[in-house]
Amino acid sequence: MQQHSYRRWITLAIISFSGGVSFDLAYLRYIYQIPMAKFMEFSNTEIGLIMSTFGITAIILYAPSGVIADKFSHRKMITSAMVITGLLGLIMMTYPPLWMMLIIQVAFAVTTILMLWSVSIKAASMLGSHSEQGKIMGWMEGLRGVGVMSLAVFTMWVFSRFAPDNPNSLKTVIFIYSAVYLLLGILCWFFVSDGDSRQHEAESRHSKTFQIGDILSVLRIGTTWYCSMIIFGVYTIYAILSYSTNYLTEMYGMSLVAASYMGIVINKIFRAICGPLGGLITTYSRVKSPTRVIQILATIGALTLIALLATNRHPQSVAIGITLILLLGFTCYASRGLYFACPGEAKTPTFIMGTTVGICSVIGFLPDVFVYPIVGRWQDTLPAAEAYRNMWLMGLAAMCMVIVFTFLLFRKIRAAGARDSQTETTPPPARETA
Questions:
Q1: Mean of the pLDDT values across residues 195-221?
Q2: Does a structural domain hold residue 201?
Q3: What is the CATH number of the domain that holds 274?
Q4: 120 assigned to some structural domain
Q5: Domain count, the chain
Q6: Burial (Cβ within 10 Å: 0-12, 13-18, ≥19) of residue 243
Q7: Residue 235: is its pLDDT beyond 90?
Q8: Are residues 217 and 285 in the same domain?
Q9: 165 shares its domain with 236
Q10: Exposed e or buried b for every residue in 172-186, given b needs 16+ CB within 10 A?
Q11: Residue 203 domain-assigned (yes or no)
């Protein structure tokens, strides 16, 4: 470890916590949809529209966030993003009307995606040498999950201290998030630095110049689309799992507080532990391929969804419902920890890896745009059993998509490996003699 290593790890923790919890107010519906509908007086369809507004704006901003990371001060961008997000949360505390909430969601996308997403990743990567990138990125994802989980559990505990009909309960939760954002923004100003970029500048002068044609060439690669659709399917399940609180409350009669704690387990705790578990499965099991592991997990997920459909119309045992939801959550979050390993396993060239990941993010995260308004509409217009049946059917279609595209991708990877092996074993042509 380098000198001042302790400061480096503190900085990594601050960047990771900031990057993790910064999305929680934008995704407040994941745990607090019922209180949002009750106290902010939004219908489920309107809450879905609020979520899709953030998703649409985020999709647009993923690509330019990389330019921001290369052109502007990391310290200033991360600090500004956290402070502005905290101030937006204070406005959200007033329970604004729908049109203002939509504006706030657009602003959240600007601060968390454009100003923070790529900047935080690059700032963290500069804390270590080239050989330490795996360690740095691994700890970053883990610390993100720990930060999100800890704050979610604390705010849920505070929320549970209020009477069920007290509108100040949700306001207090929003205030806590806003205060944490402001505090992290201050810490970022004192701990985050832009680092010594002279070496990076020197390397960039010799690197391949980026051209618009690079995007088109990446789009012409079949494995780019396979990886994108794998992410698309897994992320659809991720979005659907955010309705687990509502499902357990409406279909099994669980209390709001108990179901909300289940939401924290699925959406927060599983995020911290299942991603690393997916990596351990890939590393230590006989199945060394991340693509194959995702395929196995998708198969388990599909069987779980079939079981949820079978028990949906006549739910009886809440233990069975919880078990199925937890199993689906495990398959989803373990796959989320692996799906960005697919482009690397497909031997995507290093000079287009960033472009490939960007394109995969844009396509793969599209469920943020359509899942929430569609499910919200089903909740508002259909009986609960029918609405959730449609939701599980959507999830089953997504899992089948993952199974199909992991099969196609693995076949492509295996064919490429066979060609490489054949090339290595083919002896060079004999030299002609005079």
A1: 54
A2: no
A3: 1.20.1250.20
A4: yes
A5: 2
A6: buried
A7: yes
A8: yes
A9: no
A10: bbbbbbbebbbebbe
A11: no
Is 359 within 8 Å of 228 (Cβ atoms)? Answer: yes
Phi and psi for 4 in degrees, rounded to 5? 60, 35
Is 31 within 8 Å of 156 (Cβ atoms)? yes
**Which positions ≥6 away from 135 have C-beta within 8 Å?**
128
Residues 409 and 307 in one domain: yes
Kindly state whether residues 217 and 353 are assigned to the same domain.
Answer: yes
114 and 27 fall within a common domain: yes
Residue 92: pLDDT above 50?
A: yes
**Token pair belonging to 151:** 């704050």
Domain that holds residue 268: 213-415
Question: Hey, what are 174's tokens?
Answer: 């929003």
pLDDT bin (cut points 50, 70, 90) of residue 183 is very high
Q: Is-contact 367 232, C-beta < 8 A?
A: yes
Contact 304, 395 (CB under 8 A): no
Do 169 and 236 lie in a common domain? Answer: no
Give the global pTM: 0.70
In a domain, 59, yes or no: yes
Q: Are 93 and 178 in contact (CB under 8 A)?
A: yes
Tokens of 153: 């559990």
Write out the two tokens for 85. Answer: 């997000």
Helix axis angle, 222-241 to 290-312, nearest 10°: 40
Residues 6+ away with beta carbon under 8 Å from 218: 224, 352, 355, 356, 359
